[in-house]
């Protein structure tokens, strides 16, 4: 009787073991590889856009950081040279300092002797060129931040169309696994598009803030230079 009880216990344990569902792991690589040519193309395009956005962000960050670095004593030296009539020395100092501020001041120094309005206009025109240089390729980040989610959604629509097509050709027998795999693949492109769009959007806004700080620095130093020229001698 004891043997019979042990045997029944083992059979019950085996039945419980058989009934335990096997948990399926979710692999991003498998989803991408099973997405067909269209899904793989969209994922590859989004990956290239992500790489481009990261490259532009760091390249602009280094450029903006270099543009914002200027000696705190620079303007004092410029005003001292101008006050003593050492225009050539002031121009040499501006040429030695590679920054947007020094180039603006150098443009203003080259116009000394002309009306103050002409000097101001020359500095403003040079300032526009400097701002254009600082914002180089930043608009691409804005384009990526808007286009990436739409491209991801395009992949979702394509994946759902393909899934519906497969179901329509299944002879009325709906394969839940086939439907689930298609939806997984469709959602993968949406997630990828949103990730790329969020990264590009955050990078764009951060660069805009950094650029605005440099522009403010340029404006402040330009006004300081113009005020010095306008001081009575």
TrEMBL record:
Pfam families: MotA_ExbB (PF01618). Keywords: Cell membrane, Membrane, Protein transport, Transmembrane, Transmembrane helix, Transport. GO terms for biological process: protein import. GO terms for cellular component: plasma membrane. It is found in: Cell membrane; Membrane. It is a multi-pass membrane protein. Residues 98-219 form the MotA/TolQ/ExbB proton channel domain. The chain crosses the membrane at residues 37-58, 138-162, 182-204. The keyword Cell membrane applies. Its main location: membrane. PANTHER family: PROTEIN TOLQ, TOLQ-RELATED. Belongs to the exbB/tolQ family. This is MotA/TolQ/ExbB proton channel family protein.
């Amino acid at each position: 009787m004891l043997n019979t009880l042990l045997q029944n216990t083992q059979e019950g344990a085996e039945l419980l073991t058989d009934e335990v569902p096997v948990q399926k792991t979710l692999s991003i690589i498998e989803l991408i590889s099973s997405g067909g040519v269209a899904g793989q193309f969209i994922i590859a395009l989004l990956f290239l856009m992500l790489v481009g956005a990261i490259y532009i962000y760091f390249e602009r960050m280094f450029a903006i950081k270099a543009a914002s670095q200027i000696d705190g004593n620079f303007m004092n030296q410029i005003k001292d040279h101008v006050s003593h009539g050492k225009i050539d020395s002031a121009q040499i100092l501006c040429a030695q300092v590679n920054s947007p501020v020094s180039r603006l001041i150098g443009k203003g120094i080259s116009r000394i002797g002309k009306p103050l309005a002409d000097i101001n206009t020359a500095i403003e025109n040079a300032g526009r060129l400097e701002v254009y240089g600082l914002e180089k390729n930043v608009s691409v980040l804005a384009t990526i931040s808007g286009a990436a989610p739409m491209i991801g959604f395009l992949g979702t629509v394509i994946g759902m169309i393909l899934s519906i097509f497969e179901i329509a050709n299944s002879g009325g027998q709906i394969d839940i696994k086939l439907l689930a795999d298609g939806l997984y693949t469709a959602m993968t492109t949406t997630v990828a598009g949103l990730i790329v769009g969020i990264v590009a959007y955050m990078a764009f806004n951060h660069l805009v803030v950094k650029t605005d700080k440099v522009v403010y620095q340029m404006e402040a130093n330009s006004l300081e230079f113009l005020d010095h020229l306008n001081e009575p001698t």
